[in-house]
Design goal:
Number of domains of chain B: 1
CATH topology of chain B: Rossmann fold
Strand content of chain B: 15-25%
Helix content of chain B: 25-40%
Mean pLDDT of chain A: 92
Largest sheet of chain B: 6 strands, mixed
CATH topology of one domain in chain A: MetI-like fold
CATH superfamily of one domain in chain A: MetI-like
CATH architecture of one domain in chain A: Orthogonal Bundle
Distance between the termini of chain B: 38 Å
Low-confidence stretches of chain A: none
Largest interface: A-B, 23 and 33 residues
Distance between the termini of chain A: 48 Å
Radius of gyration of chain A: 21 Å
Oligomer: heterodimer
CATH class of chain B: Alpha Beta
Largest sheet of chain A: none
CATH class of one domain in chain A: Mainly Alpha
Structural class of chain B: alpha/beta
């Protein structure tokens, strides 16, 4: 067994190491940017909803429609259909750099809905009390709404990261690199079962680490 | 003085919905403890939420010390709200903030920051409501009565002229109810702050209110001093609330 493992590392070690790094880079950059955008969109969706802090039917409907539209396009189709835009933006459609834009485009609306949902879980009376204290809208959002929703938002981060991890594997199929690319090129096209198994093991470990650390953080910051 | 003039609130976009309030006119003198009583769905909460404009009346005016506040927006509205504090049935505390941070929230709302001076005042207020040792506790670690005391301390933070109590004791057990009511009474006596007490319980009115208005389906059917109204109730609902007739009749 240890000999098999040794062989595996000798053959695929550097490849898998680079693949893992690429995957983590795609995951980190795209999720970070997706959260910057998704947070803003999610907050706007929340505050403009009917009966919310600043109900605005048109803004809410248009934004909701854009989010739904983007979310209804399967990632593989979104990825190839925006390739001209990706090319214009970052100069390439392959590698880690070439996949960040489609990943963000796909993840940001997902994040927006996750954020909106987390905000909706905050008890209404706590927000109303903040309003009754004479807090302005930005103050309510920054000092009451988001801090109250934070444990739920952090739990959402693990769901987002794991979804985006899945997307990075799909992106691997069209030249993004990373573990998905290795699984397809070596495991699928060349019947190198060991490479396939190794990528699966690595992905399982990555998912476990994401899930456990987000759970731990959420538990630590939640005072309910 | 808070003067409600022909306050009407209609739900529904085109104004064709239910009348939550119809032509409610009331004068609430400064320093008073004013009870507004009614059964569930009578419009009590809508009425009190119109006072601090958490809800906008469909028509009519809210006049405070001779100034019409009904149309206030932006920073005028926010500074008005700091004169009119509110406590809620569900306490409305921020679960991710300590008792002290909750009491400091009105300072944060007002100035965007919390000074050392603010914190000292917040601690003094927590002491006043009997929770000096709970400053760093989170709401989840407090009992219902304690949570409402934190909410009262928060309401007092900005030295309001009025405190609106929306079913403030309805979620509490009898012992906590008694202690919260006596605290409110003491605050009214010592600071002269006007209390508007929304309740469905006659015993709450009897315990702390000086004046009372009875609300039935969005209309004031009876108003006067508690002594008068209790001694000579006119309306069926008042009699029923006083237990003089049963609801089944």
């Amino acid at each position: 067994m240890s000999k098999v493992m040794g062989n595996l590392f000798a053959t695929f070690g550097p490849l898998l190491g680079q693949g893992l790094l690429d995957t983590l880079a795609m995951l980190f950059f795209s999720t970070t940017i997706a959260y910057l955008l998704g947070l803003v969109i999610g907050v706007i969706l929340y505050v403009t909803a009917p009966e919310s802090l600043r109900p605005h039917r048109a803004v809410n409907a248009v934004l909701g429609w854009v989010v739904n539209m983007t979310r209804s396009i399967p990632f593989i189709i979104l990825l190839v259909s925006v390739m001209p835009v990706t090319k214009a933006l970052v100069g390439t459609t392959i590698g880690v750099r070439g996949v960040i834009f489609p990943l963000v485009l796909s993840a940001a609306p997902f994040v927006a809905r996750m954020i909106e949902q987390s905000l909706n879980e905050v008890p209404r009376d706590a927000i109303e009390a903040a309003e009754a204290c004479g807090a302005s809208l930005p103050r309510i959002v920054l000092s009451a709404l988001l801090p109250e929703a934070m444990p739920s938002i952090v739990r959402g981060v693990s769901i987002t990261l794991i979804s985006v991890l899945g997307y990075t594997a799909i992106a691997g199929a069209v030249g993004a690199g990373g573990l998905g690319d290795i699984a397809i090129r070596y495991g699928y096209y060349r019947y190198e079962d060991q490479a396939m198994i190794a990528t699966i093991v690595l992905l399982v470990v990555v998912v476990q680490v994401i899930q456990s650390s987000c759970d731990l953080i959420a538990k630590h910051i939640d005072h309910r | 003085m808070i003067s409600l003039q022909q306050l009407t609130k209609v739900y529904g976009a085109d104004g064709g919905g239910d009348h939550a309030l119809s032509n409610v006119s009331l004068d609430i003198p400064n320093g008073d403890v004013f009870g507004i009583i009614g059964i569930s769905g009578a419009g009590k909460s809508t009425l009190v939420r119109c006072i601090n404009l958490l809800e906008r009346p469909t028509s009519g005016k809210v006049v405070v010390d001779g100034i019409d506040v009904t149309g206030l927006t932006g920073s005028d509205l926010r500074s008005y709200r700091r004169r009119v504090a509110m406590i809620f049935q569900g306490f409305g505390l921020l679960a991710q903030k300590t008792a002290l941070e909750n009491v400091c929230f009105p300072f944060l709302a007002g100035t965007g920051r919390v000074t050392e001076e603010n914190r000292r005042r917040a601690r003094a207020l927590l002491d006043e409501v009997g929770l000096a040792d709970k400053a760093s506790s989170y709401p989840a670690q407090l009992s219902g009565g304690q949570k409402q005391r934190v909410a009262i301390a928060r309401a007092l933070a900005c030295e309001p002229e009025y405190i609106l109590c929306d079913e403030a004791t309805s979620a509490l057990d009898p012992a906590s109810t008694a202690s919260v009511l006596s605290l409110l009474k003491k605050i009214n006596r010592e600071t002269g702050v006007t209390l508007v007490v929304i309740t469905h319980s006659m015993s709450v009115v009897r315990d702390i209110c000086k004046d009372v208005a009875v609300l039935v389906r969005g209309t004031v059917v009876e108003a006067g001093t508690v002594d008068e109204v209790f001694a000579h109730p006119q309306h069926e609902t008042t009699k029923a609330l006083l237990g003089q007739v049963s609801w089944d009749e």
